[in-house]
TrEMBL record:
Its EC number is 5.1.1.-. This is Dipeptide epimerase. InterPro entries: Dipeptide_epimerase, Enolase-like_C_sf, Enolase-like_N, Enolase_C-like, Mandelate_racemase_C, Mandelate_racemase_N_dom. The lineage of its organism: Bacteria, Bacillati, Bacillota, Bacilli, Bacillales. Residues 142-241 form the Mandelate racemase/muconate lactonizing enzyme C-terminal domain. It holds the Pfam family MR_MLE_N. Its cofactor is Mg(2+). Binds 1 Mg(2+) ion per subunit. It is an enzyme of class 5 (isomerase).
C-alpha cells in the first residue's frame, strides 16, 4: 500500500526572456512554490503553484502557508488508494487557495498514475498522445507586437494569442491590424482582453475587427470576470466566438456561464480550478452543453504545465492549448516532463507526470 510520507515545499524564481504584459499585469519572472510529495515506496510526486495575486488572489506566502499548515497534516499518513477522499478533504479544508490546492492535487495525481504504471494522460483518459500550443504576444506598441508575431511564426507557431485591453480600443484594433499585416492569413489569431474592455466597447471593437476581415478565431474574457450578463451581451452581439476565462474558476461558475449561454468556449486553468480533480468536472459539464474547452496556464514552469498538458491530452472535449509559459523562461528548471518541439508537445514514456527532478529552486521553506 502506497502511503504519503512527506511533503516538501520550495520556492523558485526564474527570469523571463522578455517581460510578459497583459491588461492586468506585467511579469518579469516566474515565481512559484514547488511541492514534492514522497510516498513510503520511494516514489515522488511533483506540483507547482505560481503567485498570481491579480487573478487568483494567491501569493507565494499564502500558497506556502496553506500547503504547510493546512494541507500537509491532512496528507501525511494517507493511502493513495483513497485519492478521491484525499482530494475531497483538500478542497473542503479551506475556502479559496485554489493555486495551493492545484499544486497538491497535481502531485497526488502524479503519484497515483505512477502507482498504476501509466503516464498521467493515459490514466485520465488517454485521448491523444501529443498536443499543440499557441504562443502569446504581449501587449506593446503595434510595431513591436508585429515584430514579435513574425518571430514566433518563424519559430514554428501557427496559432498566436494576442494580448489587448490595456489602453484605448482604437489602439487594440491597430495592434491586430499590424499583426495580421505582418503574418498574413495563414496563422490563427486569438485575442485575450483579460477583462480590459467595457461591454459596449467590446462589442464595437470585435465588430470592427470582423468588418476589417481580420479573421479572429476567438476573443477571450473581453469584460470583467463577474459581469456574466455583460459577457453574454458580447457573446450575443458578435459573430466571433467568445471564451470565458477569469469568469470560470469552479464547476458551479462554469454551469452558470454555460446555462445562460454567456460564452461559446471555456478556458480551464488548474490554478483557477484547484487542480485536475475539479478541472475534469468543469470539462465534463462543458461537454454536456456541447461547449469545447481550452486548457491554459499562468506564468509557470514546466512542472505545472506538464500536469495541465497531461489533462489536455486526456480529453476529447479539450480542443485548444495555451502552454507557452515555459518557453518564455531564461532557464528550464525541470528534468523530464512534457517536451516541446516547436508548437508540438509530447509526453515521456514513464509513468505519472514523467518529471524526474526540479532543479535551480531556492532552499526548502517548509515541510
Amino acid at each position: 500500500m502506497s502511503i504519503i510520507q512527506s511533503v516538501e515545499v520550495m520556492r523558485q524564481s526564474t527570469p523571463l526572456k522578455k517581460p510578459f504584459k497583459t491588461a492586468l499585469r506585467t511579469v518579469y519572472s516566474t515565481e512559484s512554490i514547488i511541492v514534492r510529495i514522497q510516498s513510503n515506496d520511494g516514489r515522488v510526486g511533483w506540483g507547482e503553484a505560481p503567485a498570481t495575486i491579480v487573478i487568483t488572489g494567491d501569493s507565494l506566502d499564502s500558497i506556502h502557508s496553506a500547503i504547510v499548515h493546512t494541507f500537509t497534516p491532512l496528507l501525511v499518513g494517507k493511502s493513495l488508494l483513497a485519492y478521491e477522499r484525499i482530494l475531497q478533504e483538500i478542497h473542503q479544508s479551506m475556502i479559496g487557495s485554489s493555486s495551493a490546492k492545484a499544486a497538491v492535487d497535481m502531485a497526488i495525481y502524479d503519484l497515483v498514475a505512477q502507482n498504476c504504471g501509466l503516464p498521467l494522460y493515459q490514466f485520465l483518459g488517454g485521448y491523444k498522445d501529443q498536443i499543440e500550443t499557441d504562443f502569446t504576444v504581449s501587449v506593446n506598441s503595434p510595431k513591436e507586437m508585429g515584430e514579435d508575431a513574425v518571430r514566433y511564426v518563424q519559430e514554428g507557431f501557427n496559432v498566436l494569442k494576442i494580448k489587448v485591453g490595456k489602453d484605448d480600443i482604437l489602439e487594440d484594433i491597430e495592434r491586430i491590424k499590424e499583426i495580421r499585416r505582418c503574418i498574413g492569413s495563414g496563422v490563427k489569431i486569438r485575442i485575450d482582453a483579460n477583462q480590459g474592455w467595457q461591454v459596449k466597447d467590446a462589442i464595437r471593437t470585435i465588430r470592427r475587427m470582423e468588418d476589417l476581415g481580420l479573421d479572429i478565431e476567438l476573443v477571450e474574457q473581453p469584460v470583467k470576470a463577474g459581469d456574466i450578463k455583460g459577457l453574454k451581451m458580447v457573446t450575443d452581439h458578435v459573430e466571433t466566438p467568445i471564451m470565458a476565462d477569469e469568469s470560470v474558476f469552479s464547476p458551479i461558475q462554469a454551469f452558470e456561464v454555460l446555462k445562460s449561454r454567456a460564452a461559446d468556449l471555456i478556458n480551464i486553468k488548474l490554478m483557477k480550478s484547484g487542480g485536475i480533480y475539479k478541472a475534469q468536472i468543469i470539462n465534463h459539464i462543458a461537454e454536456e452543453f456541447g461547449v469545447e474547452c481550452m486548457v491554459g496556464s499562468m506564468i509557470e514552469s514546466r512542472v505545472a504545465v506538464t500536469a495541465a498538458a497531461h489533462l489536455a491530452a486526456s480529453k476529447k472535449n479539450i480542443t485548444r492549448c495555451d502552454f507557452d509559459a515555459p518557453l518564455m523562461m531564461l532557464q528550464d528548471i525541470v528534468v523530464g516532463g512534457v517536451k516541446y518541439d516547436g508548437r508540438v508537445m509530447t509526453f515521456p514514456k514513464t509513468s505519472g507526470l514523467g518529471i524526474l527532478d526540479v532543479v535551480h529552486s531556492q532552499s526548502p521553506v517548509g515541510s
